[in-house]
Specification:
The structure holds two protein chains of two kinds. By secondary structure, chain A is α/β, with parallel strands linked by helices. In chain A, about 45% of the residues lie in helices and about 10% in strands. Chain A is globular and about 75 Å long. Classes of the chains: A alpha/beta, B alpha/beta. The interface between A and B is large, with 90 and 83 residues. Bound molecules: iron/sulfur cluster (2 copies).
Chain lengths: ~550, ~450
Amino acid sequence: MAEPDATVIDGVLASCPDTVKKNRKKHLVVKNEAAGCCQQIEANTRTIPGIITQRGCAYAGCKGVVMGPVKDMATITHGPVGCGYYSWGTRRNKARADERTPADKIYSQLCFTTDMQEPDIVFGGEKKLAKMIDEIVETFHPRAINICATCPVGLIGDDIGAVAKAAEERHHIQVVAHNCEGYKGVSQSAGHHIANNNIMEKIVGTGTERKPGRYVINILGEYNIGGDGWELERVLEEIGYTVNSIMTGDSSYLDLKNLHHADLNLVMCHRSINYIAEMMEKKYGIPWLKVNYIGIGATNESLRQMARCFNDPELMERTEKVIARETARVMPVLEQYRKICEGKTAFAFVGGSRSHHYQYLLRDIGMEIVVAGYEFAHRDDYEGRQVIPTIKTDADSKNIPELHVTRDETLHREPNEYLGITKEEYEDLKSEVSLNAYEGMYPNMRDGEIMIDDANHREVEELVARCKPDIIFTGIKDKYVSHKMGIPSKQLHSYDYAGPYALYNGAVNFARDVSEMLLTPAWKLIVPPWEQQNTTEGEPNA
Amino acid sequence: MLECLPDKAVTHTAGKINPAKTCQPIGAMYAALGIHGCLPHSHGSQGCCSYHRMHLSRHFRDPVVASTSSFTEGASVFGGAANLKTSIKNVFAIYNPEIMAVHTTCLSETIGDDIPNILKQAEIPEGKLVIHVNTPSYQGSHITGFSGMCKAMVQYLSESDGVQKAQVNILPGFVNPGDMREIRRIVHEMGIRMIMFPDTSGVLDAPMTRKYEMFPAGGATVAEIRDAGNSALTLALGAFASNAAADLLQEKCGVTGIPLKLPIGLKATDAFIMALSDWFGTEVPGSLSLERGQVVDTLLDTNFHYQGKTVAVFGDPDHVIAMTEFLITMGMVPKYVLTGTPGKAFEAEINGMLGEAGISGSKVKADGDLFELHQWIREEPVDLLIGTTYGKYIARKEDIPLVRFGFPILDRAVHPLMPVVGYRGCLRLIEQISTALLDRRDRDALDEDYELIL
Ligand code: SF4
Ligand code: SF4
């Protein structure tokens, strides 16, 4: 491939007007080993109007990502029809019935929207919303209800909090109102934060059940796309953990209420869920560990760190046994795919952790992500959490209320007590395992590789022309753009409807799917024989 | 799943459960993609644009590029004029389209941005154009948004030079690029000059060449849409999607507009061809008579595969109206007919067709939702379901075969390239419907009833 370097960035931005260039330059960073730490990258700031961005909105983050997957809550989108419709069944948070949540209490396949009409905009939509809640309760008897607000709701001043409160009194179930109007913040990130706050403030802590087991854990920011959460559950339960809740993939309101009855929080997607982890640490003292189960090496490392947290030789032994067995089982399979993938390069523009996590799995099969970016990350997702105190809040992030949690005097325990270790052991542990911390994507990238925040359509085109990746990992909006350029593209939000891609079985699925994409015979058939001057033209991936 | 559903039909009055429509801007965005060199622009917050691009990409499996005014809270409070002006500047500087087609969203509508006024103040480069349509989603549906953008094309672009040309304008309605190609082929077979707008063929069914073009070769050119004002006739295919633009064209440029059904099914295709033939005095070529004859032949060969079977049809009003007519032609019984788009004309038209065919006891509804449809089916089942991908939950739960038809189809490929319009479309629909029913019969057959030939 063409080696990216600092001049690439100037080239990428060359065709932009000066104001745009000046703005965008701050969103692009080339890894420079020699410099030591990460140069500041601008993130979580406004997208320039008119720029073709991949970003969504606060509603998408709140309803689409975090609240929507709670399977036993009826989630009502309060607004005109579109927002609810587009977030209906379009993320692949798989959910199933279990002994706690019977099949008739699962509403994930339904879309509830108040479908506001002009009179609702003029005279207010509160009555309609209240009526819809009544009808839903009467028809479906859900355990609890979410109300998610869309753009016009905030503007016309509907008080969804008051509607929720009145409905709670009428029906004696919890109704949680989310003021996640699409215009809040600068991307979906605002919605993640709003949902985190509401879950923490209104749901967590209201239950009294602890699941049986010595090591009870929550998996936070794992959305069970393609069944990732279940693959994780399979392995963790075999080792001896009890999974309290996968949040929010296959998660239930019942389990969220009891989220605080756990010994350790695992954080998968840092961006979308770090708030809850941090708030639970403050309020209850529960420690959290940033993990990554994408890639064999990464999985093994995360499993070892978890076991290390509890400092139980038996747990460690079982961990090592599972690691040894599973690694031995899948490595030879991955080796076959490595032969196909070795030396190939990729771009990744996805989500709030995936662009980082998948670097490990790709390296397992000999590939390298040379340009990586997020749509809605904050600086800490790139540079590490140590920069958080230095991040200035601008007008847009000020609009998202901070939830100030305080220590719960009756439930709070010291973190070492959760882990069943002594204070001294906990201090030792902190020096070995980065508890309650995240180092960001930068340290994992290699010299000359590029990080790009809120990558836009033109920049992707330019980067492709310059760095000529063999595959692009992105979402649906860019997938076919990439294809038209002759470069295979895999959706990493939805996995192109395959998966799971997490842990051991997941790694095999992923390696197979990527290999198949690279080998798809049609890539060599793009140029018709009557137009072929020389043979290499027809073979982009040859 | 869906064990949570009640057994009996229930009436719900507030809001929608499983809507059978979506919001206006996505229709406007789709129509705008049917102008050559056009960048659709969504005036509002990013989420809407992102959702619309996503959804269109999933249906067409092709790039759908559009820009957004990227509102944050500030713009929501102070108005979006600055965002739109900046957008226009950046869009022309960076992406260089011929024309930008702005549509509003709920947000910019609710704050009341005055788009024509903002456009007057914006810096639009020489030779470039910006058109707009208001698409608040608390009215109508994606079909209304499509209709609105078609009307905007006429309003901004079409002009009459006072000399009428022997050419026809075709407003194809909210159909796939494959349908648009097929309509064009039929008109060409007739030997008549035509202007079709919008025309997404070549844009959303673009070939793979390894050269990415942000503005692919397809689409109606601005010059063509302008020249539509000089045509002798406009055929508005599908009242909901196309009448508004045809009416305006008549009012503005004096071009006679004839409203027709979408040419889906035998009778509607006949009507389309007759309208062309009557107006231009052209004889219908043998090639089309041959195609028509094949359809009638097939209907007679296969009637026992489907005749008398009951069907539930849902989707966009123009699609459903034409499909219902064809189902009646096939001898099937449309038992439940539903669209999500509001409009009483829909119910009147369907009830009229059913009445004429002597079919009674059917339920017909505009502005309905799929939860209602599902509950009707649970109370009294049908043999076949015809509609969009969203019908697959009903199909599975009630164990009814589904023929995918209309917009969107998110879980099957190739459909945007394969026409359902015209006589070829008839054959395709007959094949899909009879195959679905026969597959079902094979699957259910006892060993002793399982037969080689059906
Ligand atoms: S805010 Fe309005 S325009 Fe945007 S997606 Fe929702 S319904 Fe559609
Ligand atoms: S990894 Fe990405 S796609 Fe996933 S939840 Fe986080 S932000 Fe979203």
